[in-house]
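Reopening closed ticket. The problem is back. First fold of the pair:
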Amino acid sequence: MRALAVPVAVFLAAAGCVGTVVSLNSVPSPDVRVTVGEEEPGPSPGREPEEGDPGTAEPPGSGTAGPEEPETAEPETGGTGSVPPGSYDGVSVAVGEFAVTVETAYTDATITDGMGMHDTAPEGWEYFILRLDVTNAGSAPAAFDPVGSLGLATDGSEYTNDPGAEYTVAHDYFWDDLAPGETVTTHILFLVPAGTELSSVLINGEVRLSPN
């Protein structure tokens, strides 16, 4: 009996070694990956990426939204562009042989010559008045007549001078001849909507009188 025991033990040991080898051969090889630097591993090949997998997050700024539009600065304005009547005070210009200076400019709904003659503008209107000092700088008698003068409003409207209103206030000068060197005070008037500002005046429709 002892003689048979040894071969049986050897046989069992050999069978165990063979089983171990077969088991080792059936174990699948591990999936070995080489990582370069600190790159996050992506999803395994053959599998759809799932939310939360490394490397599936959208990069900042990605998506369907386009680039932000740059902000556009509002242009700066250089003021209101207001031209009050007083802007004409002291302005001088040569009109033919006459030297013309604006003594004062103002607006009023009622005008008078101070001696009983007066006139009133319609409701919502007023007179734009230029009081002028006019000198005959020529060598011969000549009359200064503002006929055909135009007031150019800041809104682009044009107004012709009002001879009737000018006659009302022109008690000291009725467009008679002036001797060389003679100076008189006279007026140019425009009937305009209340609040109208004139950007310039064309005396006789030709010579531009601009405000200061």
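Second fold of the pair, where the issue appears:
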Amino acid sequence: MRAKTRLAHSMAVLGVVMAVTACGNVNSEDETAAPAAANCRTGGLKWSLVLHPDKSGSRRDAHLTASNRGSAPCLFAGYPGLLIHNGKANSLDGVGQGHPESITLRKGEELTVGLQYTPSGAKGAGSYCVREPDALVSAPHAPESDRADIPITDTHGHPTQIDACGDHISMSPPRLAQG
């Protein structure tokens, strides 16, 4: 009887040791186990698209900014959606190269995406052009139904129009804005 009791006790101790090993040390505080931020949602971001003053040459610059207006951090994982749409006619999409690193945006933080486009009348502009005072934007990987319509402004915050030609608007990888 004593052998059976010792065997049962040993098995119970072994079970406890295995359970603690499988679960990890419950007294340690592992900061890397914090829950990952959810993907940013279009409606949880404040957007702006600003055209830079005209410069010589065949390309113009602009920047698209998104700031987290939510209370929790969110993950901006990829290029944002960008569409300049001229009614039911022509439209230009924003296109980026490669797979940019994901950025965790904390409350109030913003990121920026550099844009380059060919204005009408510039050398090599072609005839496929879009002139619009607003743009449709979305968080990375958001469905088309989750787009936001935003006004296009100049560097002084005044409404303006983009006059872009070609087959797309080039996008640089998103980066945290320096503030």
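Update: turned out to be a display glitch only; the data is intact. Residues 110 and 179 are 9 Å apart (CA to CA). The chain has one helix and 13 strands. Please close again.
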